[in-house]
Design brief:
The structure holds two protein chains of two kinds. By secondary structure, chain A is of the alpha/beta class. Chain A is built from five helices and five strands, in the order βαβαβαβαβα. In chain B, α14 packs antiparallel against α15 and α17 packs antiparallel against α20. By secondary structure, chain B is α+β, with helices and mostly antiparallel strands. Classes of the chains: A alpha/beta, B alpha+beta.
Chain lengths: 119, 598
C-alpha cells in the first residue's frame, strides 16, 4: 500500500482529503503544520508528500526544499488555492514537483492525479 | 554778399600765404572735429551742378573741379607761390572762390564777428535762416549773446561764457564747443560752434561756424531713451537673458540672473568652467546635459526651437528647475558669432509634476494593495470552500441511503456551494487580471472550432429554454491568441445571452476584417435600458441592480470579459433595444502582438 503524507493546516480539508485518498486505497497521514510534517518524514518513508502552500509555521515550498535537499526519496505535489501558469508548472517539474492541484477539486480529479504520480 | 567779396578781394597779396595757412589750419581743425567741414565740402560739390545751371557762370565749375583736385598740392604750392607771383595770383583767386562757395552755400551758419563789442559783421544765408532773422542787416545788428538764452545748460551766463570762448579763440587761434543758441524771438536749439581767429590787413576778427545739432541731439536722446527702456525691460523681466560668444564667454546678462541664482554678476562672469560645472550655478548632475547642449548650440545652424530643461543650484544650495531656450546670434554676413539663452524658472511646475507623479504612484500602490487584498480574500474564501466541496462530495457518495428530504438538503448545499464557488472564482479572476502577474498563452487557433465547442457545451442550457443557437462564420479564421481567454470571453457572452433570453435565438457571427476579427453575439432577450449600457461593464454592477433572482450571476462577468478583450488587444461594446434584444460585439487582432498588451 502506497503511503501518502498530507500537510494541511485546514483540518476539515485535511480530514476530507484523507478520507478520499483512503477510499482510493492509500495509506494517508496528515500534519497540521510544517514542523509536524517534517517530523513524520523522519519516522516514515512516504511515497508521496502532498503540500499545502500556506502553512502557519512555514510554507509548503520550505518543506519541499528541506526534504529535497536531504534527498528524501519521495514524490511531491502541491495543493493550493492559487492558480499557476503552465510556464511555471514546467519550472516546477524540472525541480521535482510532480503536480500542482488547484483547490477546490473533485474527488475524481484528485484521485486520478495521485494515481498518475504514483504509477 | 557783395560786401564780403569786396572785403576778401581787398586782402593784400603778402598776406595770402598767411591766410592760406590759416585756411589750411582751419581745414585741419574742421576735419579733426566731427567732419564739420568735410560734410560742407560734399555739399559744395553737390551744389556745383546747381551753380552751373542757375548762375550760368562760365568756368566756375571747371575751376572748382581743379580746386578739389589740387587740394593735396596746396602745401607744395605754397613754396611755389613765393617764387611765382602769377601762380600766387591764380591761387588767390581760387581760394577766394572756394571760400565764397563755402561761405555762401554751406548749410552751417557762417558769420564774422569783430571786437571790441563782438557784434556780427557778416552772416551767410544759413545764418539768417538758422537764427530766424529777417536779413543780413538785422543780423549784423546783433551779437552772439543776443542769439543765446540767458544761461547755458551748465548754468553759466551766456554773456560770460561767450566772452571766455572768444578769448580762447583769440588766444589759441580757434575754439570748438557746444552752445545753446536761440532763434531770434523763438526757442533755443543746441549747436556746435567753431570760432577761428582771422588776421587780415592788420585787423583781427573771428569767423564762427554754427551748426544746428537739434536732430543729432534728438537722435542721441532717442537712442539713449530706447537703450534705457530696453535695459529697464531686460532688468525687470523675471526671465534670465544671457548672451555668449562662441568661446562660451558671457558677454551679457540681465539682472534676473542674480535674482535667480543668488550669485552676483561678477561671480558668474569670473567663474572658470570645470568638468563639474560649466557655470557656477549649474547642478553638477546636469552638467553633462548642459555641455552637450552648448556643443549643439555652436555646431547647429538654426537654433530657433532648441530648448532644454535642467537643474541649477543657487548660492543658498537650493535646487531650481530651468527651462532654457537657445538661439544663435549672427553678424551681418550671417556668420554665427554667439548664442543667446533665455532661462525660465519652472521649479513650481516641476514640483507640481513631481507631486502628481507621487500621487499617481500612491494610487497605483493603493490599487496593487487592493488587488492583493482581493487575492487574500479569495484565498480565505477558497480554503473553506475546498473543505465544503470535499466533504459534500463524500456525503453525495451515500446519497442513495438518504431520505428524499435529506437529498433535497444536500442538493441545496451543492447549489449554493456552486454559486459561492462561481463568485469566488470571478473575484479571483478580476484580481488576477488587474495584477501584473497575469500571463497570456498565445497559440494558433481556428475560431470556428473554438466557437463550435463552446456552443456544444452550452447547448444543454439553450435546449432547456427552447432557444436556437445559430453560428454564422463566413470563412475559416485562423487566429494567434490566447485560446483559454478567448473561450472565456465567448463563453461569458453566449452564456449571458441565453440567460437573458426567454424565446427566440442567440446568434454568434464572426466576420474577418483586415487584420482583426469582429465577433457579434446577438440575442432576442429582454434588452438593456439605454442609461444602463455604459455601466454594464463596471465591476459588481449587477449586484447593485439585481435582476431576476433565478438568473443569478456575480456582476463580474462582463467586467472580466471586457478586461480580457482588452488584454488581448481588442475592444468590446454593445447595442441594445429594450424588449427586443441585445448585440454584444468585440474585435480582436488576428495576430496578438506583445505591444498591444498594456
Amino acid at each position: 500500500m502506497k503511503k501518502i503524507l498530507y500537510v494541511e493546516d485546514h483540518r476539515d480539508t485535511a480530514e476530507a482529503v484523507k478520507q478520499m485518498l483512503e477510499d482510493a486505497g492509500y495509506e494517508v497521514e496528515i500534519s497540521f503544520c510544517g514542523a509536524d510534517g517534517l517530523e513524520k518524514t523522519h519516522k516514515k518513508q512516504f511515497d508521496l508528500v502532498l503540500l499545502d502552500v500556506m502553512l502557519p509555521d512555514m510554507s509548503g515550498w520550505d518543506i519541499f526544499k528541506t526534504l529535497s535537499s536531504k534527498k528524501y526519496d519521495s514524490k511531491y505535489a502541491f495543493l493550493s488555492v492559487i492558480p499557476i501558469s503552465t510556464e511555471r508548472m514546467k519550472e516546477f517539474k524540472k525541480v521535482g514537483i510532480s503536480d500542482y492541484i488547484t483547490k477546490p477539486f473533485t474527488k475524481k480529479d484528485l484521485v486520478e492525479r495521485v494515481k498518475k504520480i504514483l504509477k | 554778399m557783395e560786401k564780403i567779396r569786396k572785403k576778401l578781394s581787398a586782402t593784400g597779396r603778402e598776406e595770402i600765404v598767411g591766410k592760406r595757412e590759416h585756411v589750411a589750419k582751419r581745414r585741419e581743425e574742421i576735419v579733426g572735429k566731427r567732419e564739420h567741414v568735410a560734410t560742407g565740402r560734399e555739399e559744395i560739390v553737390g551744389k556745383r551742378e546747381r551753380i552751373k545751371k542757375g548762375e550760368n557762370r562760365e568756368g566756375i565749375a571747371l575751376e572748382r573741379e581743379e580746386i578739389v583736385g589740387k587740394r593735396e598740392t596746396v602745401a607744395t604750392g605754397r613754396e611755389e607761390i613765393v617764387g611765382k607771383r602769377e601762380h600766387v595770383a591764380k591761387r588767390r583767386e581760387e581760394t577766394d572762390e572756394r571760400y565764397k562757395v563755402l561761405f555762401t552755400f554751406s548749410k552751417d551758419a557762417i558769420m564774422t564777428l569783430e571786437p571790441p563789442n563782438w557784434k556780427f559783421t557778416s552772416g551767410n544765408d544759413s545764418a539768417i535762416k538758422i537764427f530766424n532773422v529777417k536779413d543780413e542787416k538785422e543780423f549784423i545788428s546783433l551779437g552772439p549773446v543776443d542769439l543765446s538764452p540767458e544761461k547755458q545748460p551748465d548754468g553759466q551766463l551766456s554773456s560770460i561764457k561767450a566772452k571766455k570762448m572768444i578769448e580762447k579763440a583769440m588766444k589759441e587761434g580757434s575754439s570748438f564747443f557746444e552752445w545753446t543758441h536761440m532763434r531770434y524771438g523763438d526757442g533755443d536749439f543746441p549747436a556746435t560752434v567753431l570760432l577761428s581767429r582771422v588776421e587780415e590787413e592788420g585787423r583781427i576778427y573771428l569767423q564762427a561756424t554754427v551748426r544746428d545739432i537739434t536732430a543729432q541731439k534728438r537722435a542721441e536722446k532717442d537712442l539713449e531713451k530706447s537703450e534705457e527702456k530696453l535695459k529697464m525691460i531686460a532688468d525687470n523681466i523675471s526671465d534670465v537673458l544671457l548672451s555668449y560668444d562662441m568661446a562660451h564667454h558671457l558677454v551679457y546678462a540681465n539682472s534676473a540672473i542674480e535674482r535667480l541664482t543668488g550669485y552676483t554678476l561678477s561671480e558668474i562672469m569670473d567663474f572658470k568652467p570645470n568638468d563639474n560645472r560649466l557655470m557656477i550655478y549649474i547642478n553638477p548632475d546636469d552638467n553633462k546635459k548642459i555641455t552637450a547642449k552648448w556643443n549643439e548650440c555652436i555646431s547647429k545652424r538654426d537654433l530657433k526651437t532648441s530648448t532644454s530643461e535642467f537643474r541649477i543650484l543657487t548660492k543658498n544650495k537650493e535646487t531650481k528647475w530651468i527651462s532654457a531656450s537657445y538661439g544663435s546670434v549672427y553678424d551681418e554676413s550671417k556668420k554665427q558669432t554667439g548664442v543667446y539663452v533665455v532661462y525660465h524658472d519652472i521649479t513650481q511646475r516641476k514640483e507640481a509634476e513631481e507631486k502628481i507623479k507621487k500621487q499617481v504612484e500612491q494610487l497605483k500602490e493603493l490599487d496593487i494593495a487592493k488587488t492583493d487584498f482581493m487575492n487574500i480574500v479569495s484565498h480565505e474564501l477558497k480554503t473553506p470552500l475546498t473543505a465544503i466541496y470535499a466533504n459534500l462530495e463524500l456525503l453525495e457518495e451515500i446519497k442513495t441511503k438518504l431520505s428524499e428530504k435529506n437529498i433535497n438538503n444536500l442538493n441545496a448545499l451543492r447549489r449554493n456551494s456552486n454559486q459561492l464557488r462561481f463568485l469566488v472564482d470571478n473575484i479571483l479572476e478580476i484580481a488576477r487580471i488587474q495584477s501584473n502577474k497575469f500571463e497570456l498563452n498565445i497559440s494558433k487557433i481556428d475560431l470556428e472550432n473554438c466557437i463550435s465547442s463552446i456552443v456544444n457545451d452550452l447547448k444543454i442550457l439553450s435546449d432547456k429554454k427552447n432557444i436556437k443557437l445559430i453560428v454564422e462564420i463566413d470563412k475559416p479564421i485562423n487566429m494567434s491568441t490566447d485560446s483559454i481567454r478567448l473561450t472565456e470571453i465567448l463563453n461569458n457572452l453566449i452564456d449571458n445571452a441565453i440567460k437573458f433570453t426567454e424565446e427566440g435565438y442567440v446568434k454568434i457571427k464572426a466576420i474577418k476584417q483586415d487584420d482583426s476579427v469582429l465577433v457579434e453575439v446577438t440575442d432576442t432577450g429582454i434588452g438593456i435600458p439605454e442609461d444602463k449600457i455604459s455601466k454594464l461593464f463596471e465591476k459588481f454592477y449587477q449586484i447593485y441592480t439585481p435582476l431576476k433572482s433565478e438568473v443569478g450571476g456575480t456582476g463580474l462577468g462582463l467586467a472580466i470579459t471586457k478586461q480580457l478583450v482588452e488584454l488581448l488587444g481588442g475592444k468590446i461594446n454593445l447595442k441594445s433595444e429594450l424588449g427586443k434584444g441585445s448585440t454584444f460585439y468585440f474585435t480582436l487582432p488576428i495576430r496578438y502582438k506583445e505591444e498591444v498588451k498594456k
